Amino acid sequence: MSHVPGRQHAVVARPATPADDTAHPSAVAAFFDVDNTLVRGASTFHLAKALHARGFFRARDIARFAVHQARYAVYGENAQHLDKVRAKALCLVAGHSVHEVCSIGEQVYDDVLALRIFPGTRALLEAHLAAGHQVWLVTAAPVEVGGLIARRLGATGALATVPEHDADGVYTGRLDGELMHGAAKARAARDLAARTGIDLDRSYAYGDSMNDMDLLAAVGHPCAVNPEPRLRRLARASGWEVREFRQPTRRAARTGVKAGGWVAAGWAATSLLRRAARR
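and the corresponding structure tokens:
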């Protein structure tokens, strides 16, 4: 696994246990999922919008991803589906430079992502840093996005999906390693712990969905943050802590988005395809 070293109503939060581990700064870590745990919504969506605005891909490419997202909602997640979506996403940046994408990412962070960070989760992250813990973001987003957010928040680094690039810093359209998703997050945390001496039994993890289940189960102090219903039930059954940092209206809207968002995705796909055809 690759890592990138880096360093809405108001909520004041603390780590799940009050113990101060400054005496063992390298022995304890806190692992944070990004989308809907730390950042409201999907961080890569906003990067994709910026890339589209700069001509990285066409309207029909967006339409194809909308269709894939709708299929995911109907049929669920599977390895073949993930591989297909991953391959298409990588093709969109093939031939572009890492520097170019990173520059766009910086602007996206300043204009959008910085405003979408949950204050409660950020307070947790900062409390871990103050306690002398390592803080790692663990995300399926590209390492350029995960690493950028980690640097801006002063975190130790990011474990993220790594698009391959050549010696000249140009994306090849392939992946370096596996997609940082599901069980891969737990494997990345264990690999990091084995390399650096992190004690996972004393460490923390924060996630919002069942995709974070393995990561949460890998540490001694798991916490479900803004959890989807299935993770909320699992957390309660397992005795895990649950934190809710969303406003009540947003929390209620999440269910509505899941129920009706796929209709919107299909409409968007049809609209974009028609527009592309006219062009």
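(Above: one complete record from the training split.) The radius of gyration is 19 Å.
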